[in-house]
Predict the structure.
Amino acid sequence: MRAWAIACCVALPVAAQEPGQIVDEEVFRANALDRVWLAPGGQVQIFSDGTLRANWGGRILSAEWEWRQDKGMMCREGDFDGDPRPYECQIISFTEDGISISRFEGRGPTFFFVEE
């Protein structure tokens, strides 16, 4: 029983997670932060210090993020090449190969990422 208690709390690699929306901050932090996520046309890094950096087609997004437990989403605000970007919440999900990020609370485009 003691081995089960330890095993249940160890974070699994993203590929081992069941596909679906991440709704818990601890799961998000353990599996999505401090990694380089690649997608066609760009990459994103979400850091454990509450910052986010993306390079999308040579344009740079710099932002601060927070986890909104009431929404089960990551929310961010920052600038894209110096142009302010408004506060926006995004759905983060596990996929078969990595993660996806769905903008505007899932009503906008979804981008699929694999770990570098």
Q: What stands out?
A: The beta strands are 20-21, 37-39, 42-46, 51-56, 59-68, 73-80, 83-94, 98-102, 110-115. The longest strand covers residues 83-94. The radius of gyration is 15 Å.
